[in-house]
């Protein structure tokens, strides 16, 4: 049987509340051999029942994490995600961490995993002190750590990627390690230190689901989900 991959959907309230997801995620999972299922924002507690019914998870991209429920202050440049999505997304991230479910985090998904695992974010990269900050809402290159799972998956040590974010990882939690960064020093990729399949990228591979790098990344998730 083909592995079922749950993909977290975004939540928007204009003009009426609705869940949406870029089709690229669906296409990438299908091309990799999985069955994609779009997940609405969950009520905390539902995620444990969900994880008994899926084989892997994609935490998708979206708007910014709102630091106020976590004890921080909202930056003036922030576009916080819907609070219902944030509550459900963090609960889902905590669950996949606790139950070792094969997971791929994309952009916001990488930031959610960082926060759920005990790390911290820069609220606005231009304020974070990077002396030669690149435009992280455009194409640029990233360098992958040789020998890391991510590097072995994509088969290269440098990639040309497309990102679209202004928050970023400031402190990597103990469960994860940095495995990719851009030339300005911004962290662009994380993976688990204990061998489980938990990989996160700050860029948007789903924007080109037919690209070889994207296919390899999603295929690795689907294969890990099939073994789980």
Strands, helices and their partners?
Elements: E1 4-8, E2 10-12, E3 18-20, H1 23-31, E4 35-39, H2 46-51, E5 56-59, H3 83-99, E6 103-106, H4 108-116, E7 120-122, E8 139-144, H5 149-154, E9 158-162, E10 168-171, E11 176-182, E12 187-192, E13 198-201, H6 212-227
Helix pairs in contact: 3-4
| Fourth-tier CATH superfamily name | Class I glutamine amidotransferase (GATase) domain
Query: Helical percent range?
Result: 25-40%
The shape, in one word, is globular
Separation, N- and C-terminal Cα atoms? 13 Å
Strand content: 25-35%
Give the helix/strand class: alpha/beta
**Using DSSP, what is the number of strands?**
13
Oligomeric description of these chains: single chain
Name the strands of the widest sheet in spatial order.
Answer: 4-1-5-6-13-12-11-8-9
Largest sheet: 9 strands, mixed
Backbone CA Rg? 16 Å
Q: SSE order in H/E notation?
A: EEEHEHEHEHEEHEEEEEH
How many structural units, i.e. domains? 1
Instruction: Enter the CATH topology name.
Output: Rossmann fold
Mean pLDDT, to the nearest integer, reads: 95
